[in-house]
Every structure is written in C-alpha cells, then in structure tokens.
Design brief:
Helix content is about 0%, strand content about 45%. It has 2 domains: about 110 residues, Immunoglobulin-like, CATH 2.60.40; about 60 residues, no CATH class. The strands form 3 sheets. A 6-stranded antiparallel beta sheet has the order 3-8-5-6-7-4, with no helix packed on it. Strands 1-2-12-10 form a 4-stranded antiparallel beta sheet, with no helix packed on it. The structure holds calcium ion. The site of calcium ion (CA) has 7 residues, from loops. Calcium ion binds next to loops.
C-alpha cells in the first residue's frame, strides 16, 4: 500500500517496514516494569513540487523520490500518471489523468499517491516465539489508552489521499523482563486501497 506510519506529524520520520532501520523504539525498565505512550501518524506517500509547473508541463521536479512508474499521483484536483523517472525526483507524467483537468501548480504544492483507504485497521502482532502483542494497547487518543484492551486492534475507519490520521500506542513491559533487544512486536496496517476517482 502507498500508506505509511510516521513518528511525527510533519511526516519526516517514517517507521521502517520489515527492517530495523527506523523502528518505533523505546528503552524500558524491565526490572520494575514500565509503560511508554507515543502518538503515531498514518499518511499517504507524499512529497512537494520542487518547482512550479503550468498546465502543459510533462516533466517536473519533486523534493523526495516517492513514486514509481505506472503510479497515479494527485496535485490539487489534478491526477497525473507517472510515465517514467519513477524512483527519482524528476518524473515524466501523463497530465489530466483519470478524467481530471490539467492546471497550474506552484512550487511547494503537496503531491500525493492517488489512493483513498477504507476500513483501516492497526493490529499489534508478534512474529517470533511466544506472543507479546498484549504488551501493546492502541487508542484513538492518549486518554483512551487507559481503557483500551491489551493486544486488540484499532479501527481507524477511512482516509482520503490527503488526510493524515493519528492514533496512540502504549507499550507496557512487565516487571521482571530480562535485558534484551526486543524486535518482534509489530504494528500491521490493513485496509482497502482504492484509486482516487
Ligand atoms: Ca514474541
């Protein structure tokens, strides 16, 4: 899916997916047991235009290399199809894709992958040995963590391509937990991905 978890509202710190290059990590006192809360953010793949374009420009610069060939993106109300240059910051586009109208776009305008989402679910899982998924509580806001059920999924509902959703997680390490670098608890994001029409 063209959707990712981030540790900050500015969406600069993406939580790594399947690697430990940038995990949502904390250090806990396992002797006495400890809980830590964090707000996480869910957003579409996105960047900004690095220069202005008019309604006929087919090659443009984006700030970060976020898209692949064959992918549709949204700038304002216009969709474009990435024809070439995927994986780089200079892309060639088919303008006015999916029945939208070509327009002028100024430098700094947001560029999103052209997907909307329904039925988004965040699920704590554990991929090694006994499950410690119950160390995780999820809630729509921090106050909700107190009454959240340990290990239970959180339903975030629907998300438009340009919306950022947020939720809170609480990880509780029980007292008497030995020293370790624990990497087996993950948050799985599922949902239905649909093209922006
Ligand atoms: Ca485990």
């Amino acid at each position: 899916m063209a959707i990712h978890l981030f540790k900050d509202a500015e969406l600069t710190q993406q939580v790594s997916e399947g690697t430990m290059t940038s995990p949502d990590s904390d250090t806990y006192n396992g002797t006495d047991g400890e809980s830590k809360d964090r707000e996480l953010f869910l957003a579409n793949e996105q960047t900004t235009l690095a220069s202005a374009i008019n309604d006929t420009t087919t090659t443009l610069q984006i700030v970060d290399a976020r898209f692949t060939d064959g992918e549709a993106i949204v700038i304002g109300s216009e969709q474009m199809l990435v024809v070439s240059g995927g994986g780089t910051t200079q892309l060639t586009f088919e303008r006015g894709y999916a029945g939208t109208t070509s327009g002028n776009h100024s430098s700094g305008t947001k560029v999103y992958s052209a997907y909307n989402y329904t039925g988004l679910l965040i699920q704590p899982i554990d991929n090694a040995g006994p499950s410690e998924a119950t160390w995780v509580k999820l809630a729509a806001n921090q106050a909700g963590l107190d009454s959240a059920v340990a290990g239970e999924s959180l339903n975030l509902g629907d998300k438009a391509h340009n919306a950022t959703l947020s939720f809170w997680r609480r990880v509780t390490v029980p007292a008497g937990t030995p020293v370790q670098n624990k990497t087996d608890i993950k948050l799985r994001v599922t949902g239905t991905e649909s093209p922006v029409i």
